[in-house]
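A reminder from the course coordinator: this example appears on the midterm review sheet, so study it carefully.

Given structure:
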């Protein structure tokens, strides 16, 4: 892949400027992996979601299937705690499909949430009851791989290309749905992943977690966007750090409050990522209920699936955002040092530039 070079302006301290010191020269530096234009969120073209909504609210259940004795690929161990079989960890995941999914489903139905599922496609064949429940509710699906114990890291280009063909065919055969996006199994991938996804006519890749809005990828051909997913507002890493569901509720509420404030200026995405084997436990599910109730009590919220967010963004935002980012890069590589303007009002207050504390 060709690595683009952009201009980095090294800015001297404000005190040095007051002493009349000259500005430092711009230097070109590579920015691998060169998959995105740099575009400050406060300077992008503004947009709103359907019906003027500030926040697109996406609930992403990770409905997964872990193999008891997975094949080893020589790169990554699916059960690193002990040599396989790891009965404890396997049992945890199995609980999610036997019990946790159905308890989580009660809460989602209560709030009329239509989900964009991160789905191990093997669930549809191993547990058709779960598949039928999701299909009846007209949920959308993004691929989370076939199993959550088989990864993309060791795939050749042709193997990865076949993975997308298989995923597209399997989802359509078992649900009638068209596959539009992916959260790679266990966040795995290769350097080719965005290019091959675009080649397969997929629209979005979740997992980069680098923005609060969708944003265009740079790909060899076609179009692909990054979809805002979350590893912060995600029950699995939260609970692994020793926190529990009341904390999950508090950070979810705080996340929403800030995004709702920022969304007054331009549309934001809030993703809540959950796993039935974690959030579906008896002592946790009430806090999930409380979080959904809080978010859905606000009027300027668009409760949407990841597919719906991608479709709207592609139709109404993609071209303007991409053109703006390309213009910004062209201006930044012109060779003249650029001094950033004071950012516009964002989220209801004006951000200001402050001088450093010391010279």
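Designed residues:
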């Amino acid at each position: 892949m060709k690595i683009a070079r952009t201009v980095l302006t090294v800015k001297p301290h404000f005190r040095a400027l007051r002493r009349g010191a000259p500005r430092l020269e711009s230097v070109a530096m590579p920015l691998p992996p060169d998959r995105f234009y740099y575009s400050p969120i406060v300077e992008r073209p503004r947009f709103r979601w359907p019906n003027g909504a500030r926040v697109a609210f996406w609930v992403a259940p990770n409905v997964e299937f872990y193999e008891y004795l997975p094949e080893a690929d020589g790169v990554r161990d699916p059960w690193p705690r002990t040599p396989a079989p790891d009965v404890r960890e396997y049992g945890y995941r199995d609980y999610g499909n036997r019990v946790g999914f159905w308890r989580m489903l009660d809460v989602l139905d209560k709030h009329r949430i239509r989900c964009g599922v991160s789905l191990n496609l093997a669930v549809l064949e191993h547990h058709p009851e779960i598949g039928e429940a999701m299909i009846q509710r007209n949920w959308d699906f993004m691929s989370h791989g076939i199993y959550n114990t088989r990864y993309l890291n060791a795939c050749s280009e042709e193997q990865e290309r076949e993975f997308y063909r298989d995923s597209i065919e399997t989802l359509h055969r078992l649900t009638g749905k068209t596959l539009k996006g992916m959260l790679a199994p266990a966040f795995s991938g290769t350097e080719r992943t965005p290019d091959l996804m675009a080649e397969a006519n997929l629209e979005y890749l979740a997992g980069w977690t680098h923005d609060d809005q969708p944003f265009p990828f740079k790909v060899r051909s076609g179009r692909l966007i990054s979809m805002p997913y979350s590893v912060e507002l995600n029950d699995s890493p939260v609970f692994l750090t020793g926190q529990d569901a009341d904390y999950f509720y508090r950070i979810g509420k705080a996340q929403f409050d800030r995004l709702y404030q920022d969304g007054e200026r331009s549309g934001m995405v809030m993703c809540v990522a959950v796993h039935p084997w974690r959030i579906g436990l008896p002592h946790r599910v009430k806090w999930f209920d409380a979080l959904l109730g809080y978010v859905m009590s606000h009027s300027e919220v668009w409760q949407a699936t990841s597919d719906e967010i991608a479709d709207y963004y592609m139709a109404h935002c993609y071209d303007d955002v991409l053109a703006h980012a390309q213009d910004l890069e062209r201006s930044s590589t012109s060779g003249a040092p650029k001094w950033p303007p004071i950012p516009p009002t964002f989220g209801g207050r004006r951000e200001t530039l402050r001088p450093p504390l010391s010279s």
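Residues 1-34+327-359 form one domain. Residues 1-30, 336-342, 348-359 have pLDDT under 50 and may be disordered.
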